[in-house]
Amino acid sequence: MNHEEVKKKLFQSSQVKKEYDDLKVLFDIKKEIIQLRISQGLSQKELAEIVGTQQSAISRLESGQYNPSIEFLSKIAHALGKELQINFH
């Protein structure tokens, strides 16, 4: 089975689908941070230095072991030359 087939099978459970949907925003944010950091040629340590935090904080954020505050996400965004925007649809 490939990833999409496993996902389709798991999503047959409404509980699994709800949990996935609830976490999707956080996964998307973390994915974008990783992509931006890598595209700018920054290591986790370099990004941490710009933000004014420890490399371990960036690692925990990217691995999903830490749910950041809006303030911390804003610092990350500015360090990556971006602006944090939050929208409700």
Automatic annotation (TrEMBL):
Keyword DNA-binding: yes
The keyword DNA-binding is assigned to this record: yes
Keywords: DNA-binding
Family annotation (CDD domains): HTH_XRE
Pfam families: HTH_3 (PF01381)
GO molecular function: DNA binding
Domain of life: Bacteria
SMART domains noted in UniProt: HTH_XRE
Domain HTH cro/C1-type: 33-87
Name this polypeptide is given: Helix-turn-helix transcriptional regulator
Organism encoding this protein: Alkaliphilus serpentinus
Organism lineage: Bacteria, Bacillati, Bacillota, Clostridia, Peptostreptococcales
